[in-house]
Amino acid sequence: MIRLALLLTLTAAPVFAQDHILIQSTTSTQNSGLYDHLLPLFQAETGIEPRVVAVGTGQAIRNATNCDGDVLLVHSRAAEDAFVSAGYGTQRHDVMFNDFIIIGPETITADSPAAALTSIAQAELPFLSRGDDSGTHSREMALWNTADIDPTGASGGWYRETGAGMGATLNIAAGMGAYTLTDRATWLTFANPADLVISYEGHADLNNQYGVIAVSPQHCPSVNAIGAQTFVDWITGTSGQQAIAAYRLNGAPLFTPNAAE
Amino acid sequence: MQDFTAAFRAALDLVFRMDADLMEIVGLSLLVSGAAVTLACVIGFPLGAALGAGRFAGRMPLLVLVNAAMGLPPVVVGLTLYLLLSRAGPLGPLDLLYTPTAMILAQTVLVTPIVAAITAQIVADLSEEYRDLFATMGMRRTAQAATLMWDGRFALTTAVLAGAGRALAEVGAVVIVGGNIDHVTRVMTTAIALETSRGALELALGLGLILLTLSLGINAALMGVRAAARRLSDG
């Protein structure tokens, strides 16, 4: 028993012993490899160890609301603003952007993403929805709303809600030849595209903005407020922004930094 | 078939390179699951012995409960522990969420019913065989239970192995309470889930092969120990 108690203490020890921050994050920044590139630079410059819990934006915000995180890095503007105005976060900052794309078995010619979705719905082509309150899911719902279509009535038919992460949903899309909405970074770094192509891209409605928020120490006294603010300052500052711009795949940038000066 | 060949190659490549990340992940898997199985035995053996050999009110309902708990969904255990260990939860001040300790706790909850239920079955079966012997000797119940456990020790390794199998294989609980944090709480199963979500299916399957090999090794080692111990005690 003593050995076990010792083991439990030892495995818990690093939490108290080191200066670290916990980042509740969307998955695309992890799946695309951005964190593998970015976070070692942050740690080298600040001495703070970043720990990432990558879940969907909805769950990340829930976890941060429960004070289970020091910083939020997500991509759902409405939910981020609500988080701050409810007093859970200090301030929201732009970090970077890329764009959403519709991927699927064939290209779609349309004037807007809403029109592209309309043609999918009319032809009843298989479409996968994340269905998980993630940033991508909320954008998808907003696009359906613009198209004035409620696809959930067809749920289980041509419209399928996976209730899973972006990667799992892409695997399903690859397996069954379905359309789905994804962010470009996750798609470009996804290693199992099968026969899928970018069906629709390049429209203002598909802009995908990422934001960073330090969890409020007033709401959560337990947070590492100094560490969190250091991270926010770093990623929106010169070093972080340059590091984001420098992260490329086959010469193409995956995210474009756009923090305000 | 291409995929399986690639998976096999990915696994071999990782192992022969002694990939540092892989070693860390394997080490944490063994630490977390090993500690959980040990704790589960500390609780499950006495509980199982009491359920198997004891005669007390509520024994049957408790036995049903323990047997049913063998089928606890890991994701439910993970979620419940998350709500308890969250900063907003009753155990929040312990600061255990997203630590290996939280993962050990979760797997202990999953493994204990397995160890207890199998132990109860082994002890109950033996207790039938020994009934007359115990009656003539006039042994006390606790002494009987100790005897049954000792004489059933070879069979009890099955309880340990079943528990270890569950602990090493589950992902639902540890991904929620551990968070799959690189270098902190990433274990084999959560790494496999992450690589799958990246579409790196060969690497994911390769990691799966390594996990399977580990499991095989642990089973073979315990069976070997059991056979050797049995020879010793017989000879």
Automatic annotation (TrEMBL), chain A:
<feature type="signal peptide">
    <location>
        <begin position="1"/>
        <end position="17"/>
    </location>
</feature>
<dbReference type="InterPro" id="IPR024370">
    <property type="entry name" value="PBP_domain"/>
</dbReference>
<dbReference type="Pfam" id="PF12849">
    <property type="entry name" value="PBP_like_2"/>
</dbReference>
<keyword id="KW-0732">Signal</keyword>
<dbReference type="InterPro" id="IPR052738">
    <property type="entry name" value="ABC-Tungstate_binding"/>
</dbReference>
<feature type="domain" description="PBP">
    <location>
        <begin position="23"/>
        <end position="236"/>
    </location>
</feature>
<protein>
    <submittedName>
        <fullName>Tungstate transport system substrate-binding protein</fullName>
    </submittedName>
</protein>
UniProtKB/TrEMBL annotation, chain B:
<feature type="domain" description="ABC transmembrane type-1">
    <location>
        <begin position="26"/>
        <end position="222"/>
    </location>
</feature>
<feature type="transmembrane region" description="Helical">
    <location>
        <begin position="203"/>
        <end position="225"/>
    </location>
</feature>
<dbReference type="InterPro" id="IPR035906">
    <property type="entry name" value="MetI-like_sf"/>
</dbReference>
<feature type="transmembrane region" description="Helical">
    <location>
        <begin position="62"/>
        <end position="84"/>
    </location>
</feature>
<dbReference type="GO" id="GO:0005886">
    <property type="term" value="C:plasma membrane"/>
</dbReference>
<protein>
    <submittedName>
        <fullName>Tungstate transport system permease protein</fullName>
    </submittedName>
</protein>
<keyword id="KW-1133">Transmembrane helix</keyword>
<dbReference type="GO" id="GO:0055085">
    <property type="term" value="P:transmembrane transport"/>
</dbReference>
<dbReference type="InterPro" id="IPR000515">
    <property type="entry name" value="MetI-like"/>
</dbReference>
<keyword id="KW-0812">Transmembrane</keyword>
<feature type="transmembrane region" description="Helical">
    <location>
        <begin position="25"/>
        <end position="50"/>
    </location>
</feature>
<feature type="transmembrane region" description="Helical">
    <location>
        <begin position="104"/>
        <end position="124"/>
    </location>
</feature>
<keyword id="KW-0472">Membrane</keyword>
<dbReference type="InterPro" id="IPR049783">
    <property type="entry name" value="ABC_perm_TupB-like"/>
</dbReference>
